[in-house]
Amino acid sequence: MAKIEIYTQAFCGYCSRAKKLLDSKGVTYEEFDVMMEPKRKVEMIDRAEGRSSTPQIFIDGKGIGGSDELSALNRTGELDKLLGLGA
What we know:
By secondary structure, this protein is an alpha+beta fold. Helix content is 44%, strand content 20%. The protein has one domain (4-83): Glutaredoxin (3-Layer(aba) Sandwich), CATH 3.40.30. The protein contains four helices and four strands; from the N terminus they run E-H-E-H-E-E-H-H. A four-stranded mixed beta sheet has the order 2-1-3-4, sandwiched between helices. A hairpin with a 2-residue loop joins strand 3 (56-59) and strand 4 (62-65). The protein is globular, with a radius of gyration of 12 Å. The mean pLDDT is 96.
């Protein structure tokens, strides 16, 4: 199973949407709230090559972007491959 990390913040609709999609896949992920842990925001921006919007999602250490990118991967079937799901 892939290691999934997601940087989020409270009251972020895009964060909720991304987590709902991941939940629907039945995968576990580690969530970092950048508002509750400000040092995580700096870490996120560094890992995401300067992107500062939330969510920022990483699968097996590779940044895939935010909620829109996650949804696009799901539409093409690539998300299941990255997550190690399916045949």
